């Protein structure tokens, strides 16, 4: 009897050990090259509900997401770099008034547009970022220029504009960024914030109003090229009614953007203060590096568990070194699209 018990315990221990070291089927799949190259984008996350969207608007968003991602896909398919794919894809969205980046950026409390962007190269871990520029047509291009042509990672405000001008980037009149829709959103939010300010928690009112009344709309892109290099970029106008030179997560490397060829690339969108506090983009990469998590496990833990517990809302698009891709968000919707190396296209808006 004793002997049998001994053998039984031995078998249980053995099985237990086996379970610990045997990778799950998801891990096995993720460890195999899924795509030689791939690209994934977002156009912001938030309270994006089917009931509030006309069929025409929905079609417009989907068409623009498709147009943007196909630009990046073509670059990758032709053997171009992930840096170029991220730049050109984001520029399509920056130039569209549909998104809160470049033209169509949200308004600050003072009725101006202040733009933030960042870029990271997963091969060298080099990065560039810009915060609070008001007259540079393509903030993502400026972020990349800061990475390639300066000794710095982040420039802000007037200095960043001078740098952009010196480097020959396109400078526009600040009115270029104006859109009536975004201006009206600001007015609505200001009006509701006034009412809310009678409440006790005055600080919350500013953001509550923003969250309730507007979607976010930041844009981001992560790409893996045929040479195995991952790049990630994010561009935004920030949050409606921001003031005092508020800077969100989008230009913060590790929060809004992160890329490392050893793990993955990430671009975030959502309530920036929480993404900064949670170091969301870097945390995903770190969980993969230090805990051997799959991309799906890491993005799901960081967004559905950690960010949600913190009280943050938003999401990420992420892509790993093997071409696995992940959309993860805890909001009602996220404008998003992906394309694999076979050219299969996914374009979605709501939770499905
Ligand atoms: N994350 C951006 C910010 O907080 C906003 C957004 O994603 O739409 O500035």
What does the model show?
There is one protein chain. The protein has a single domain, classed as 4-Layer Sandwich (Glutamine Phosphoribosylpyrophosphate, subunit 1, domain 1). With 352 residues, the chain is of the alpha+beta class. It is 42% helix and 21% strand. About 3% of the residues have low confidence. Helix 3 packs antiparallel against helix 4 and helix 4 runs antiparallel to helix 5. The radius of gyration is 21 Å and the shape is globular. An 8-stranded mixed sheet has the order 4-3-2-6-5-1-11-12. It has a 4-stranded antiparallel sheet with strand order 7-8-9-10. The structure holds aspartic acid (ASP).
Short description:
Helices cover 42% and strands 21% of the residues.
Number of helices: 11
Structure classification = alpha+beta
Binned strand content: 15-25%
N-C termini distance: 55 Å
Strand and helix order = HHEHHEEHEHHHEEEEHHHEEEE
Portion of residues within helices = 40-55%
CATH class: Alpha Beta
Question: How large, in whole angstroms, is the Cα Rg?
Answer: 21 Å
Side by side, the strands of the main sheet go 4-3-2-6-5-1-11-12
Enter the CATH topology name: Glutamine Phosphoribosylpyrophosphate, subunit 1, domain 1
Please give the domain count: 1
What's the architecture, going by CATH?
4-Layer Sandwich
- Overall spatial form: globular
Number of strands: 12
Arithmetic mean pLDDT = 90
How does the SSE layout of this entry go?
Blueprint: H1 2-21, H2 25-31, E1 38-46, H3 55-77, H4 82-94, E2 115-121, E3 127-133, H5 139-149, E4 154-156, H6 157-166, H7 180-196, H8 202-213, E5 219-224, E6 230-236, E7 257-259, E8 264-270, H9 272-278, H10 280-291, H11 295-310, E9 314-320, E10 325-329, E11 333-339, E12 345-350
Parallel strand pairs: 3-4
Antiparallel strand pairs: 1-5, 1-11, 2-3, 2-6, 5-6, 7-8, 8-9, 9-10, 11-12
Helix pairs in contact: 3-4, 4-5, 7-8, 10-11
